[in-house]
Protein: DUF2905 domain-containing protein
Organism: Paenactinomyces guangxiensis
Amino acid sequence: MNPVAKGLIIFGGILILIGLLWQVGGKFFPLGKLPGDIVIEKENMKVYFPIVTCILISVVLSLLSYLFRLFR
């Protein structure tokens, strides 16, 4: 199989798993509503800056990337 096609299939499977975990895990771990995320609410407007959520996702992805490079 072409390596590019194989990589795209694996990437798609990972995205599906992340989406399923996000849907199911959102009830137990409120990703996107963590302390430190900024919410500005006005009369007819709501602005949301998920700063802590972005930092947490970045740390987790960095650790996963490090582990994949370590065991490669």
User: Anything to note?
Assistant: Residues 13 and 19 are 10 Å apart (CA to CA).
